[in-house]
Amino acid sequence: MSEIHPLAFVDPRAELADDVRIGPFCQVGRDVMLGPGCVLHGQITILGPSQIGARNVFHQGCVIGAAPQDLKYKGGPTRLVVGDDNIFREQVTVHRGTEVDRQSNGTTCVGNHNLFMVGVHIAHDTVVHNHVILANAVQVAGHVSIEDYVNVGGASAMHHFVTVGRNAFVAGMTRITHDVPPYVKVLGYDAAVRGVNVEGMRRWHIADESIDAVKEAFRLLYARRTERSPGQTLAALREIERDGLLDDQHVRYLVEFLRRKLEIGVFGRVRERYRGDVPEDRAGFYRAGEKEPA
Q1: Could you confirm whether 59 is annotated as catalytic?
Q2: Domain assignment present for 282
Q3: For labeling, which of 10, 122, 126, 244 is most exposed (least CB within 10 Å)?
Q4: Of 124, 129, 159, 160, which one is the catalytic site residue?
């Protein structure tokens, strides 16, 4: 039997599993689906259309499934889909998708077993995969993809359409404007690659042999550089292939990721290649300031 505090409001068109717990001053809107074991502490707002999986915990002040802050949004019933076992700490905001994103089909997606600390914002059409940690006040723009096992330090900000590769570590207060390769550590205003995320790989049980292979690939890619050019990176990728390092699945994924970024990336962002919006999608906002001719 669900436990719904008498000071909470649940729209009759919402669908709740039998063992959901909803605290005081929460609002659950129409077209919201809450899965088994979900817990909403006080003052949570969840709006629809949103599909929330099992055992998700929402702490005070979260706003989940609100309309996107995007001039392209046309007011349609876009969606938010959340998986299982996620923790949303205080004041986390997650917005639904927009109608024009060809990759998301209008859906913002959050996977399983993620931790979003205080003040995290996840914008429209973003995909957060599984086992991700976003520390306090991380700001994720629209159309971003954060792959599995990523750890992002507090007050970092991500430009729209970037991809953060799996098992990457982003240091606090880092500015991410281009795709972050998997398995590396980046930090600073230019998101400089500073090393292999050895500790993160070990925590997620990647074998020492694979870690050594990634470290050798990293040495070829980054250790010799002063000002790194695409030509130098391509030469290093060819050397990695010649040395037989592609026998390791993690090195193979690193090489595939970097090749995509070099070959089809726009401004260093692969997802930017597939953006589907046009200037007319924002025209309504800017026309509002036009004056009638005298």
Answers
A1: no
A2: no
A3: 244
A4: 124
